[in-house]
Amino acid sequence: MNNRAKHEAITDKLLRRRISALLLAFLFAVSLVAPDHHSDFSQAVVKAAPADDGGLSNHIIDTVSPNHVKFNLFDYWVNTRDSSYSNGWEVQKGINQCHVFLFGAGQGLGPWNVWTGNERHYNNNANRTSGVRYGEYQGVVNNILADGYPILTLEDDVADPLKGRPEFIDNYGLGSKLTESLAYLFDPDIANDYKVSYENVQGLVKYDGNGGYIYNSHENYAAFLASEPGTLGTNGEASDGYFEVYDSWAVPSGGLTSPNGQFFPFDGASEVFQTDSNGNYTVDAGTGTLVPKSNVPLETGTTLNHYIGMTMETVFLQPEDGRIDANTPMYFTFSGDDDVWIFIDGVLVSDLGGIHDECFTIIDFETGTVYTGLTPMIRNDGGTFSEDIPTLEELKSAEAGTSTQTEWTWCDKAADGQPNITGTYADFKTAHGIQSTTLRAIFEAAEQEDYQSWGDGMEMSADTFDQNTQHELKMFYLERGAGASNLVLSFNMLAVPASGVTKTDQDGNPVSGVEFELWPAQVSDTEKDENGNAAPLIDPETGLYIADISAGEPICSAVTDENGRLSFVTDTRKIISFQERAQDGSDPQFYYVLKETGRPAGYRSKGDISLYYSIYNKNTKEGVLLSYNYWQTGAYTQALLDVTMTSELYAYSTDADGSPVAGERIAPSDTATEDEIQEYLDNGIIFAVPIKRMNMSGSLYDDANFNALYGTTNTGWTLMTESIANKTTVLEAAQKMVLVMQQTRQTGTIIAERNARQLFQVTITNIPGDVKLSYPYLMGTERENESEYNIAFYFAPNATSLDSITDASSIVRIATSYTNGGDTIRFDRQYASQFYIPNMFNRVRVQKLNYYGERLAGAEFTMFQTYSYQDRDGNGTQYIWDAGREMYRNTAVVNEDGSLKTREEILSTKAWDTGTTRAEGATGTPGALDLDGTLVFPSKFDDYLHESASAEYQVNINDTSTYMEEGEYVIFETKAPAGYEVNETPITVTVNDDGVFA
């Protein structure tokens, strides 16, 4: 399914800022009124291109958006946005203003701003200490990220006599910019008049057929298209757009020693592909693909939109042996220009900085080796060039001296009019400046080695990350030189299946910066649990587990990220395996306490969370981590079920006794070859649907006794009215399930895709009911008949999406096991857990009512803090400790005896916050709460509710109008609406862990 088809559907976006009225405290100048409560969805429609698009849609290839990978795209300019690029050097215009890191190409402006192919560039100096002509220029940025973005480190450059100090730095007073952060380029939240940011862009890469993903601009042109507000990506986050990737390259190299096929995403198909006089796209008679225009200049006279930025972020798992299967190392490969910096866990592991020709890097996670160099080129007979990126295996064998290849061929860029030359690997390596090092050596040089777990030197190379560790890769990419723009990206890093936490506020919005510690729970010396293990000790006051802090250090600690998420990993990034901890023969652990140790200002917590490891296989100790006493803590568990299917798929059936059996193999015909069967499966769609057993005394396997469901734990579940024997109801439930996941910004999918072993795999992130009552959990325990829920898998032939299925009767349920030679071959199932833990955002709703109960706009209210849990002035002068209240008293508002000062005295002091009731409701919350004639403190949150911005609400610790911390307050009406008098009665408010009270 191509990206245009993917974006034709209506995507309802769950209102991010819906108000949960049950969690608000409501204040009124006259009386207290109970609120209404309901939530609503807003709609966003992404329109497809016109049906008559000149045949372009026939040439859009299928691409994917791995939900553990996020791309952001940036457009920069120095003149106007629509201009191609700077004609002549624009040192301090546009995006270059007030910076030393410049877009363009000019002599004498520092080697980081000059093309490395220039004869006078440092890389071409006989006395240079590093670099090769046309290759990368290293050392532009620090080897450690700061606040998530690269930091320039150019002081040594300007002090080096071989490089010189460019005059423009002192002429414009830019000395301090030599060490500035590049967040102004790469942070979407930093606005700039000469930059537009597009977050979470979808659909750049395609499957490579071997368990990985690839994009190659020399094969496929990619054009960016913006999405309508409210569109969601596969990761459940808002997406600003997507790539349409075509079946041919576009933009010739124009005689440069660069391959045909460039990356200019802000130039559409009509600008780079040929069309006839009727506007129809020209198709190559031989290949059936689009025909590139031959007259698209790259430099002089160009109309292309140069100056591009892109970031890629992914959290990945280091697998056993560093391989994704028995034969395939895990890797990351990039080839392109210009600046490219790749960081892993905040450390620079590949430095391809500078304005250069196409350069490459390969990271081999099996051995830990990192390769960089100038990308080799081959001159073709017709005078064009092709990139010849050495493969990982070629480099490994050549470096080890085991390669059978004795002759290497390449084009000498400095003599591009001559034929290719040949030489030894040593010659080839020197010509392209190929370097190799290891991840461990890189981390040692950055003094970050001790923050990682490394291989043991036996099962895993000591130069690579240890198995079952979690890591974050960030790539920063720029096209800065206003010439060729090449991009080849290939990777196969695995997503992390680790259990973890998602932190939200009462509206379901993510809360970042929340700190947690995971501790074991105290257990009894005498009491046993149902499995014969030591039972947890229960605190008689809270009814929850008691943390065992005797070890002095928690099992792990972490802070939620910008998406409110964290995983259970150690300080050295080792993923916590709760199964391994349960299998520990000397000290098995089944019970845990998750302590919230820090949270942002303006939020309150529900306290510690009790967790227990629920075993479903006593022999192997397989189980799932669950939340204890959910109704008390508000923390609930969403079990994640990762399913890998068998190599052969069979239709689900039951025998005469009603037991499940495998029917006919799913195939296009009885005589189909294996290749034809696999093609048949690839041309269809496989999906998962939760089902509920309707009669617990009835059959456990008959379709007629199960109905499909759709929904989430957050939103609730809807049960279809007919059984799954009716395939129409199955399809409807699946379609609605996808819609609900989009609306609630859930990650994951119900659609199966092939994995590295070419087996279909799906991670089911929404499982209804108690996981301990689901069939996958109880399977093999002799308690299967207690199952209330199950997951059914279906295949629909000749379909690219659920919406493209036109005949529901063609859907086939898939058997989850079959027999082969007496052996039973089953689907592989693995559980993980995600805990959703709410933090309450403190807020107060105020209304002004007249005698008739009518709401009034224009009433100003001012809030003052009376008591705080912290010494806010920091010197004990205005805020003085009150031992009786166990809080700090604001002496400007409260007398020593605890009484309020006079209204006049209080109004003369600094207020915590001020706001005015509005006539209209919050336009940003249609259908949520009726906010007519109201004010919500914090006042900036009230403003936010009336805005149409899609960004999440932000608390500023230095601005008290953005949050209410725990403590006590008094509110005064300070201005009445026209025709009314001020009500001088003070309103007191208390904010603590139990809520907001008036």
Question: Which descriptors would you attach to this protein?
Answer:
998 residues, mainly beta, Immunoglobulin-like, 7-stranded antiparallel β-sheet, 55 strands, 10% helix, globular, disordered N terminus
Topology at a glance:
Elements lengths: L2 H4 L3 E5 L10 E4 L12 E5 L23 E8 L78 H5 L7 H5 L11 H4 L8 E4 L7 E2 L5 E4 L5 E5 L14 E5 L23 H4 L35 E11 L12 E6 L3 E5 L2 E6 L6 E6 L4 E6 L2 E3 L5 E3 L4 H9 L7 E3 L10 E3 L1 H7 L3 E4 H7 L23 E11 L7 E5 L8 E5 L10 E6 L2 E6 L5 E3 L19 E4 L5 E3 L10 H6 L7 E8 L4 E2 L4 E9 L4 E7 L1 H4 L2 E9 L5 E5 L5 E6 L8 H9 L2 E9 L12 E7 L3 E8 L3 H17 L9 E2 L5 E5 L10 H4 L10 E8 L15 E2 L3 E4 L2 E4 L1 E11 L1 E2 L2 E4 L12 E9 L10 E4 L4 E4 L12 H5 L5 E4 L17 E4 L1 H7 L21 E9 L11 E6 L2 E3 L1
Parallel strand pairs: 2-47, 23-45
Antiparallel strand pairs: 1-3, 4-5, 4-10, 6-7, 7-22, 8-9, 10-21, 11-14, 11-22, 12-13, 12-21, 14-15, 15-20, 16-17, 18-19, 23-28, 24-27, 24-29, 25-26, 29-31, 30-46, 31-32, 33-40, 33-45, 34-35, 36-37, 36-41, 37-38, 39-40, 41-42, 43-44, 47-52, 48-50, 48-51, 48-53, 49-50, 53-54, 54-55
Report on the architecture of this protein.
- Among the domains are: 500-634, Sandwich (Immunoglobulin-like); 640-838, no CATH class; 842-997, Immunoglobulins (Immunoglobulin-like).
- The model is unreliable at 1-51 and 922-929 (pLDDT under 50).
- The chain is mainly β.
- It is built from 15 helices and 55 strands.
- Helix content is 10%, strand content 30%.
Question: Summarize this, please?
Answer:
The chain is mainly beta and 998 residues long.
